Amino acid sequence: MRYCTRCLYPENHPLNITFDEHGVCSGCHVHEEKDKLNWKQRSKKLGDILYSYTTKSGKSYDCIIPVSGARDSYFIVHTIKNVYKKNPLLVTYNKQYNTALGIRNLAYLKTLFGCDMLTLTVNPDAVKKITRRTLQKMGSMYWHCLAGTTAYPVQTAVRFKIPLIIWGAHQGCDQVGMFSHMDEVEMTHKYRKDHDLMGYEAEDLIGGGVTKEDVRPFVYPSDKEIEKVGVRGIYLSNYIRWDSKKQHEDMIAQYGYETAYQERTFDTYNDVDCFNYSSVHDYIKFLKHGYGKVTDHASREIRLKRLTREQGIDLVKKYQNLKPSKKSLSLFLKWVGMNKKDFYKSIDAFRSSVVWEKSGMAWKLKDSIVCHAGDEGVDSVRLRKKGRCEFKLTKPKKTLKDDTYTLLGRGWADDWKQ
Questions:
Q1: DSSP bridge pairs for 363
Q2: pTM score, two decimals?
């Protein structure tokens, strides 16, 4: 299989990827724009967009920001609230795989920035039924998270007539160069269905014990509803030079954002709110596509010139084949109501034949980036390393055990200190 000669991405990336005559992928080429674009001008353009949606009465919200207890939520809220001086309404979908640390990060986010926040917590029994269904239909335990985090902000925009939604980075642009930053691509229903939801709308899951009422919270508003309010969703990464590691470290320094060890990657910043994202969910990704989140993170750090390609491959060797901890897998299986045999049977049905083959009762990975360290042309497209790729583990604010899903937690931090 073909792999990028600069980063580590394979040609079977689910978002689709192309290569030039030197073997450099489309994602690497679009990333080069980060060092060429006039970000001061683009930042001003963002300010103009925000100004055009500012409420004149001061009695309502200027925009909606989808947030969680991880990722770039602190940075996005900081940018909109403190840099551009806007009044956002925060919205969050409860993933239900919550860590106590993630609940705490979210509480401090709301408290430190003084923002109002709406939370959607779907009936856990319905979420479990849907998750069993999505494991069978598409080999995903995370569909409900993706569906909820992309539908609820739009539902809220329609309901409260707040037309502007602020997202962080566009995954298709950031990973595979699906769009240029200059395209200023915005949120679309089609991208959500085709890529975020793997081709399945909420209504497609009805059956097998899942009812219309079960999927109602995940239904995207109609085009007519969206047009009536004029809802649009913009991505900050089109207007700000996106560097997730630097942004997180700024938020750690300014607001005490908490980080945590992750089972299957070296990035301790991005997904600390979820027990499964860098554990069971990422292992499923590896079993389906032959690579995991460590490839995403290493490719990002190579492009940002903090890792060499060889160092990235070493990190893949370290993390890619790791199975989820017994605690993580057992916790999920108990929650969803499945045994291990049925779980793996569901996932095996979606393994890519491009990278996996079955020999007797065992599955074998046919190819991997670890076999392509010395590919022809690597040296001619190499980026010169300039920075250090070190991720911090912060001291936890609380020392409580974090060994089970926290469905609901304290939503406000009384002891916050700036």
A1: 358
A2: 0.96
